[in-house]
Structure formats: structure tokens, C-alpha cells
Amino acid sequence: MPAKTAVVLFNLGGPDGPAAIQPFLFNLFNDPAIIGLPGPFRWLLAKLLARRRAPVAREIYGHLGGGSPLPALTREQAAALEAELNASGPDEYRAFVAMRYWHPFAHETAAEVEAFGPDRVVLLPLYPQFSTTTTGSSIADWYSAAEKRGIAAETRAICCYPLADGWIAAQADLLKRKLAEAGDAGPRVLFSAHGLPKKVVDKGDPYQWQVEQTAEKLAGAVGLGPEDWRVCYQSRVGPLEWLAPSLDEELERAAADETGVAVLPIAFVSEHSETLVELDIEYAARARELKLPRYVRVPAVGTHPEFISALAHQVRDPAQRGDGPAPADGVRLCPEDRRKCPCRPRESMRNLP
């Protein structure tokens, strides 16, 4: 009898309209993986931060019709992956979407998975690089929801795929197209990732290390020299020290060097507010202020066939079978000092953040 596999795709989620913006922000700030205060204090602070941040967020999402395109784009990725997985072989695959901070929540998706009755569940984050604040939080949330629904199927969590061939190939293809459009000597490539407070990385979170590994492999795939690219970070909020250099700093450096830039979102797989508003509107305006000779933005991979094939490989890979989360091909990637690397028994994932 053909086996049934449920593939649960994780992503951040996004408000589906103006009324959802403040509740979405509250859910984000109330996540213990984001703010580590005890529950009652975190709840109060989350309420305050969501109320203060909501007007700015409404302006941002106003550029996008009042809500985020991320849920719809994630469903498109799920449909493409499901088609790829079911294209050959007798087994049945069904792809589900679970968002962390807005619908569909993990508990809603768990009900759908239970109704499907899978023999096996594969947890697949749409975050190529692992962080306790993203994948770690989503996986812990899923295990809690699945336990409440009584889902007993064998479950595998894929923690990350920062060096997966198809992920790199998809980005390389899109980057080469933009560099060809730019012509002349070619702009400096800025690999921009969502930032994190430095203290999170100092505690052993592997996110920054994995972002740098992705950038190095991608630069090699495209044939960039050491002076042709930089890793930088965007989306900083609050007074804490964040990962550096920032995208602002790299734009200023490019202006001083009188060179154009091509910005590639190296930690995002879908278009959303950080790409469509921050990169395409806000940073593009900053580049004009700095009089950069060129500012181009490389698209997110979306449903690029190479990327979807990379995801399908992670789901099918025999190395992914067994207990505990694993990275691409089941081999630990992170150095030992990255203590928050999740390549350890499943039980520890419940409290990973």
C-alpha cells in the first residue's frame, strides 16, 4: 500500500488585512523565542510593542494593499512542492502550510494533518538558515500542537539547508540574470539577510554562520571575487546591538567607492514586506540619495524549479529518516561553538528557544 506523507511548510506568516496587523505583531513579540521574559511580563511588553509598532506597520503594509503577500506565496510553494513530490512513485504526498504568527497557525494545520492520516510527517522550514528565533520556534510550536491533536506518525524535522545545491542554483540563476541586465563592470553584490540581536548569536545561534556559508557558496557559484560581494543585515528594530554590517552601512560604503549594488535577499525565499517595501522602496530611495550609479534587486527564489527540487530532495532523502532534526543530507554543518545547533534528540526541540 502506498505510504502517505504530510509535508508541513513553516514560515513567519503575515497579516491578511489592516485589522490583523496589531494582533500579528502581538503574537510575534509574545513568542518566548523573540522576547525571553517570563510570561506575564512578556505579554504586557508584547501588548505595548504591538500598539506602538502598529502605525508604522500599517504604513508598510499599505504599500502591499493592506496585508502581506506571504501566505499566498507560501501556498504557491506548497502546491509546487506537492506536484513535484507526486510526479513519480506510488507514495502520496500532501503539503500543508503552518505559519508562526498568523493564520494558518500550527494548531489549525495540525487538525488538517490529522484528517489526512499520514504515515509520516516531514517538517520543512522555509528558512534555509536555522535560527532559534525562526525554525526553532516553529518546530517547538508544531510539536506542541501535534501532541494536543494526538498525531503519532513518525515525524522528521529538517532544520536547515543553507548549502543545498538547488537553493544555491536558484539564487545563482536569478543573480546572473540581474548582473547580465546591469552590464558594464557589474555592481557589487550585497547578500542581505534579516538581522538578529547580537546577543542571540553570542549564545550559540548558528544563523549568522549559516548565512555566511550560503553567501560564500553562492559567490563561488556565480564566480564573484572576494571584493565583489558583502554579507549585510536589514530590518533592525529596537535599541539592542544587532548583527553588522547593516545594509545602510554597505550602501554608504558603495557610495564612497562609487560603485553600484545588486541586493540579493539571501535568507528570504518569498517576497514580503522586507523585500517589496524595505528593499524595493526604502533602500532604493536611500541609494538614490547616496547617488549610487546603480541599484538593482534580485528576486526571492519563490517557486523557482531548482529551489522546489531542493525542497523535494530534503523530503525524500533517506538520511532524513529516524529520530531528531537534521540538516540537509543528515550531516551536521555547524561548528561546535554553535551550541544552539538543533542536531540533537527530538525531545530537546520542544524547549529549543
In short:
44% of the residues lie in helices and 13% in strands. The chain is built from 11 helices and 8 strands. The strands form 2 sheets. Strands 2-1-3-4 form a 4-stranded parallel sheet, with helices on both faces. It has a 4-stranded parallel sheet with strand order 6-5-7-8, with helices on both faces.
Helices and strands, with pairings:
Blueprint: E1 4-11, H1 21-29, H2 39-62, H3 70-85, E2 92-99, H4 106-116, E3 120-125, H5 132-149, E4 154-157, H6 165-182, E5 188-194, H7 198-202, H8 207-222, E6 229-234, H9 247-256, E7 261-265, H10 273-289, E8 295-297, H11 305-316
Parallel strand pairs: 1-2, 1-3, 3-4, 5-6, 5-7, 7-8
Please describe the structure with a list of short key phrases separated by commas or semicolons.
single chain, globular, 353 residues, 13% strand, disordered C terminus, alpha/beta, four-stranded parallel sheet
Task: Please give the number of β-strands.
Answer: 8
Low-confidence stretches: 345-353
**Average pLDDT, to the nearest integer?**
92
General shape: globular
Largest sheet: 4 strands, parallel
Global structural class: alpha/beta
Kindly provide the radius of gyration, computed on alpha-carbon positions and rounded to a whole number of angstroms.
20 Å
Helix content: 40-55%
Intertermini distance: 39 Å
Strand content: 5-15%
Strand order of the largest sheet: 2-1-3-4
Query: What is the H-and-E element order?
Result: EHHHEHEHEHEHHEHEHEH
Number of helices: 11
